[in-house]
Design a protein that fits this description.
The chain is 91% helix and 0% strand. The chain has one domain (2-57). The protein is mainly α. The chain has helices at 2-16, 20-57.
Length: 58
Amino acid sequence: MSLAVLAIWLVGAAVTRYSLVQMAYYAPIAVVVVGLTVGLVLLWVKIVLDSIRARRGG
C-alpha cells in the first residue's frame, strides 16, 4: 500500500509540476481520487460482464 501511495505522490508531482513538498500536501486527495477512479472502472467492468453473461444465458 505504501508503494502505491509513493507512486501516486511521485507521478502526481511529475504530471502536475508541483514540487514534492507541495504534492505531499495533495497526496491524500490524489490517493482518494485514484481509488475512486479504480473503483468506478471495476464497477463498470462488472456491470458489462454481468450484462454479457445475462444475454448469453437468456
